[in-house]
């Protein structure tokens, strides 16, 4: 376990859906926290029957049970950071927002999960307004992929300029930092073989890229990225250090997964990849990790 400056153990909470296949959701988040030496607690918002081939069933956890899980963790475990993933529907969004407001924590990383890699919806179509109005103002870091940013902003993102405009619009909704993830597209990047994420802090655009790994074993990359950022914030890293470190960890976990063979569909990434601490980033620059 890693300690904070005051010698306390770093603690993080994930509020997300359970993935029975073990690659995404709560399972990916807890594995990621452990890889970073951070103690992980959880609040399950939905139970999915899922594997690498797709989502077979979803059971939404009743909102009073979601509230109670969050209260139980806040009362006793007192996390230093929170990752928010699958929220399923408007009632769950409102419940999670209410409990987060009460807890008043500053390190909340929001991954606005909408659709699983296989195409199954993980959020009802009428939830966008509630997500924008209730969850975004509570986020320190917001991590949409390109399709999610398109839904939240209601325009299509084809170039880096479109992505910058989306980041500016989403930042106005309240997050300290907006990251438009480039896992889904090579938008505006001169290197087609790179996966570049755009980071906006309200003043400057910073980008973080790695080589794009030509792999189908990328189930849970978004969950892992956001929980790695939450882990780094619990460890008192700056936001840019957290993002750079998380980005490199996801890349290493995708590369490591090439060695294994789990499931017949979109395989999971390897959370046992080692963590390398990345420091010394300056806002406004482009980084190749
Ligand atoms: N093939 C790849 N090679 C390298 N990096 C990748 C690849 N795919 C995704 N990434 C990186 O993984 C992180 C998560 O991005 P991605 O766009 O896949 O999120 P996501 O779509 O929300 O994930 P998920 O499908 O798990 O919800 C980003 O930092 C992205 O750049
Ligand atoms: C419970 C849960 N949360 C999030 C995702 C998104 O991950 P992916 O897009 O890789 O399927 C998922 N599939 N399941």
UniProtKB/TrEMBL annotation:
One of the Pfam families matching this protein, by short name: Phos_pyr_kin
A cellular component annotation (GO) from this entry: cytosol
Keyword ATP-binding: yes
CDD domains in the record: HMPP_kinase (cd01169)
Alphabetical UniProt keywords: ATP-binding, Kinase, Nucleotide-binding, Thiamine biosynthesis, Transferase
Pathway where this protein functions: Cofactor biosynthesis; thiamine diphosphate biosynthesis; 4-amino-2-methyl-5-diphosphomethylpyrimidine from 5-amino-1-(5-phospho-D-ribosyl)imidazole: step 3/3; Cofactor biosynthesis; thiamine diphosphate biosynthesis; 4-amino-2-methyl-5-diphosphomethylpyrimidine from 5-amino-1-(5-phospho-D-ribosyl)imidazole: step 2/3
Domain of life: Bacteria
Catalytic activity: 4-amino-2-methyl-5-(phosphooxymethyl)pyrimidine + ATP = 4-amino-2-methyl-5-(diphosphooxymethyl)pyrimidine + ADP; 4-amino-5-hydroxymethyl-2-methylpyrimidine + ATP = 4-amino-2-methyl-5-(phosphooxymethyl)pyrimidine + ADP + H(+)
Ranges where the Pyridoxamine kinase/Phosphomethylpyrimidine kinase domain occurs: 19-270
EC number in record: 2.7.1.49, 2.7.4.7
Alphabetical GO biological process terms: thiamine biosynthetic process
GO-annotated molecular function: ATP binding; hydroxymethylpyrimidine kinase activity; phosphomethylpyrimidine kinase activity
Family: Belongs to the ThiD family.
PANTHER family: HYDROXYMETHYLPYRIMIDINE_PHOSPHOMETHYLPYRIMIDINE KINASE THI20-RELATED (PTHR20858:SF17), PHOSPHOMETHYLPYRIMIDINE KINASE (PTHR20858)
Protein name: Hydroxymethylpyrimidine/phosphomethylpyrimidine kinase
Species classification: Bacteria, Bacillati, Bacillota, Bacilli, Bacillales
């Amino acid at each position: 376990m890693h300690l904070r400056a005051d010698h306390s153990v770093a603690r993080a909470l994930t509020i997300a859906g359970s993935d029975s296949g073990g690659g995404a959701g709560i399972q990916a988040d807890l594995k990621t926290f452990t890889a970073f030496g951070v103690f992980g607690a959880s609040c399950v918002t939905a139970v999915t029957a899922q594997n690498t081939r797709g989502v077979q069933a979803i059971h939404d956890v009743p909102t009073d049970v979601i509230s109670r899980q969050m209260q139980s963790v806040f009362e006793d475990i007192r996390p230093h950071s929170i990752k928010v993933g699958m929220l399923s529907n408007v009632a769950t969004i409102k419940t999670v927002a209410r409990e987060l407001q009460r807890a008043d924590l500053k390190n909340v990383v929001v991954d606005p999960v909408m659709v699983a890699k296989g195409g199954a919806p993980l959020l009802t179509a009428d939830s966008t307004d509630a997500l924008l109005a209730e969850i975004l103002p509570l986020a320190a870091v917001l991590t949409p992929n390109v399709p999610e940013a398109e839904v939240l902003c209601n325009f299509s993102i084809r170039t880096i300029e479109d992505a910058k405009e989306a980041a500016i619009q989403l930042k106005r909704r309240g997050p300290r930092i907006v990251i438009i993830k480039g896992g889904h597209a090579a938008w505006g990047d001169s290197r087609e073989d790179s996966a570049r994420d755009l980071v906006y802090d309200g003043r400057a655009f910073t980008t973080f890229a790695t080589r794009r790994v030509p792999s189908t074993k990328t189930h849970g990359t978004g969950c892992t990225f956001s929980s790695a950022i939450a882990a780094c914030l619990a460890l008192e890293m700056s936001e840019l250090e957290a993002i750079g470190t998380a980005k490199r960890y996801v890349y290493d976990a995708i590369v490591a997964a090439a060695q294994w063979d789990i499931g017949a569909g979109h395989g999971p990434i390897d959370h046992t990849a080692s963590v390398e601490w990345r420091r010394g980033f300056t806002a406004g620059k482009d980084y190749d990790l």
